[in-house]
Amino acid sequence: MLKPIIFRTYEKQIEFMRNRGIRVPDEREATEALSTFSYYSLVNLNKHLYGGLDVRPFIGNPSILDLQLCHMINMSFFQIILKGILYVETSFKTKLAYLISSQYGVTSKDDIYDPNRNFLFRGHYDTEDRRTNGILKSLLNKQQYLQSDEQEHAYAHHFLLRNRQLPPWIFIHDVEFGLTIQWYNILREEDKDIVCAKMIWGETNDPPSAVSRETARHFLDDALQILREYRNTIAHGERVFPSEMRYAFSKEPLFAILKNGELTRDEYDEGIGLNDPYACLLAITLFIHDPILMLNFLTELQQQLDFGERIKHTIDPNSDNLDILNILGIPDFTMGRLINISHNKFDDVSRYYFALLEASANLSLEGDLEKEL
Questions:
Q1: Are residues 239 and 192 in the same domain?
Q2: CA 329 to CA 272: how far, in whole Å?
Q3: Which residue of 23, 86, 133, 180 is surrounded by the most CB atoms within 10 Å?
């Protein structure tokens, strides 16, 4: 027999929380929290931090404020990760549009079988892939949608009306990340290799001879799917649980790309760098080839971790209920290794920047200690 689903008032929800070992010292504040975050977000989605799904009482006797902070820290940190994914998405779209424009032209037709001045002509793509027709037709449908009245306020709509054409570098901005990945997947092998190499090693660097083109493509395929899944999960306001992720890095392609101690095989075998948040962060930092983007992204991540630690010491300094790394599901070496990726890419710029950042943090800490004394 199915367990009946019952609506519960905020008063009943508070009673349930107390019965599960959650401290609720102020019922008015708890009601505001429940009406803001929801019982599901505060209790159900934090259960894994306090004993697991199969244990009813919350181990450690956390307060409702602990649960609020767990939720807020998690959501804020992953919003920064979402920004990083959007950096990568933009880079991927730019590189794909550049290849298509340079190789296939800048105009399109309403017929994928028309070879004349048509970057969506079927012959430009992998003709043996059964997905090709369907994906090209989806792209045509997207173009037609951009011409509809529903999109009258979009830049692409106005460009289309004025020019009767939408070049790839404008069109691709309105193509969903998933469809963009499919578009890349139906490229001919030699064109895939061009985009793949530029995504992994940058626009101006040659790929190392030790990494085969097949291995690089496999790594990129894994990384794009991981980023897409994280993007959709975070953008919909959902909590990230690696156990629910369908995609993961394959071991050998991953370690063919990683060369500077970003991950060990033993760590991978323990599930680190497979499809967890650290895997997502690895993909983002490996695909960022602009120093300003990299420094900005890593600074925001570090600031959110620092904020979490300050909140922990402010609210409950002697409790283990707010383990920031456990809340976020990242290993303790995360920031150190991501910063090393930055150092290996941008050398003196990165090293000088993070040295200044550390010196500034130390001065701030010394100032705080003086005030306390």
A1: yes
A2: 10
A3: 180
Instruction: For residues 171 and 162, give the distance between their C-alpha atoms in angstroms, rounded to a whole number.
Output: 14
Q: Which of 65, 58, 53 is nearest to 20 (CA)?
A: 58
Residue 22 lies in domain: 10-62
Q: How confident is the model at residue 280 (pLDDT cuts 50, 70, 90)?
A: very high
Beta bridge partners of 100: none
Convert the pLDDT of each residue in 100-121 to its tens digit.
999 999 999 989 999 999 999 9
| Same-domain status, 51 and 195 | no
Q: Over 70: is that where the pLDDT of 297 sits? A: yes
Q: At residue 338, what is the residue type?
A: L
Retrieve residue 359's tokens. 């010196």
Residue 33 reports pLDDT greater than 60: yes
Take residue 50 and report the two structure tokens written for it. 């306090």
Residue corresponding to tokens 């994906």: 135
Q: With respect to residue 231, please indicate whether it lies within any of the assigned structural domains.
A: yes
Instruction: Clarify whether residues 85 and 58 are in a common domain.
Output: no
Q: What is the CA radius of gyration of the chain?
A: 24
pLDDT digits (tens, 9 = 90+) for 326-365: 999 999 999 999 999 999 999 999 999 999 988 887 666 5
pLDDT-derived band at 213, boundaries 50, 70, 90 = very high
Amino acid at 318: N
**What is d(CA 189, CA 125) in angstroms, rounded to the nearest whole number?**
9
Domain count, the chain: 2
